[in-house]
């Protein structure tokens, strides 16, 4: 405010020229909005600008509508707002990508774990006869080993392998049509055999057991079985009733 003070004290100008008083620049007196308007009036700016010192130019540049300070502040605000918008968009996009790629990431993690485990296993057995056996059967890599194990489990398993190579849908449908009648007749024969088996079975191989329970949860004890699977079951008698116990559970 030093240059404004000099303007007020300058004898070349009167109050009619700049409309200022000393109280307008003294914040302890009565400086208010009206005083601020007077300080940046065109009359004051013209006088200060035409003055020989350089402070006039600084005052004009700082008080204009296109002030560097004002433009800098607004520019910073707009740039910050743009950054916040971009960050929010990135955060939103990341949330969508993470949910969509969750299954793929899990699959990659499992594959990497299996690959690392196979590598460690090969490192352990590289100086043993096991490695020679793998080479002999040409199952030295993970893919060949997986195929070999799959074929071995498929051949040794008595259960139907749903992961085995399936035939085409047309072949399955044709096979179903050809065997539908035969299966129906076979079911009727099995029912007759089951009836005869229950009536004519020899009681000499029965085991007599008494129990206060009528239901055996967790134990494969059934009332009837398919005669074809007769060798897989023991016939026992529980509470005066014929029952069948699977041999694997009796071991």
Write the layout of secondary structure elements.
Blueprint: H1 2-9, H2 15-18, H3 33-39, H4 42-50, H5 55-63, H6 68-100, H7 102-125, H8 129-136, H9 142-156, H10 169-200, E1 207-209, E2 221-222, E3 233-238, E4 241-246, H11 247-250
Parallel strand pairs: 1-3
Antiparallel strand pairs: 2-4, 3-4
Shape verdict = elongated
Tally of separate helices: 11
**What is the tally of beta strands?**
4
| Rg, nearest Å | 49 Å
Helix content: 55-70%
Structural class: alpha+beta
- Rounded mean pLDDT score: 66
Q: How many domains, in number, for the residues?
A: 5
Order of helices and strands: HHHHHHHHHHEEEEH
Largest sheet: 4 strands, mixed
Q: Cα distance, first to last residue?
A: 105 Å
Strand content: 5-15%
Q: Provide the low-confidence segments as ranges.
A: 54-71, 160-167, 192-199
With strands numbered from the N-terminus, the spatial order across the biggest sheet is 1-3-4-2
Fold and architecture overview:
The protein has 251 residues and is of the alpha+beta class. It has five domains: 2-64, no CATH class; 69-100; 103-156; 167-200; 202-251, no CATH class. Helices cover 61% and strands 7% of the residues. It has eleven helices and four strands, in the order ααααααααααββββα. It has helices spanning 2-9, 15-18, 33-39, 42-50, 55-63, 68-100, 102-125, 129-136, 142-156, 169-200, 247-250; strands spanning 207-209, 221-222, 233-238, 241-246. A four-stranded mixed beta sheet has the order 1-3-4-2. Helix 4 packs antiparallel against helix 5 (55-63). The longest helix is centred in the middle third of the chain and has 33 residues, at 68-100. Mean pLDDT is 66; it is low at 54-71, 160-167 and 192-199.
